Amino acid sequence: MLPVRGPAPIQTCVTCEEVAFRAWEPGRCPDCEADADADAARAAAEAWLAADAA
Q1: pLDDT for 12-54, tens place per residue?
Q2: Coil, strand or helix: which one is 33?
Q3: Predicted model pTM
Q4: Please, are residues 46 and 31 in contact by the beta-carbon 8 Å criterion?
Q5: Which candidate, 21, 29, 38, 49, has a CA 20 to 30 Å from the CA of 12?
Q6: Which residues does 21 contact at the CB level (< 8 Å), separation at least 6?
């Protein structure tokens, strides 16, 4: 039989250090994670445009 896990503990975001969220591992809150994903997508698009222009 598998052990029963309760709700994930409340963590503080390592980026903004303000938002409390439930997660099993410390990390970024969903808002900061979405911002990081958007920044990565923007950087990839800019790199693709720069390579296409060259």
Answers
A1: 988 898 878 888 888 888 899 999 999 999 999 999 999 988 7
A2: helix
A3: 0.63
A4: no
A5: 38
A6: 10, 11, 13, 29, 30
Judge residue 25's burial from the number of C-beta atoms within 10 Å of its C-beta, 0-12 exposed, 13-18 middle, 19 or more buried: exposed
Token pair for 21: 């969220």
Helix, strand and coil percent figures for the chain, each rounded to 5 = 45, 10, 45
Q: What distance in Å separates the CA atoms of residue 20 and residue 6, rounded to the nearest whole number?
A: 17
Question: At which residue do the structure tokens 């303000």 appear?
Answer: 18
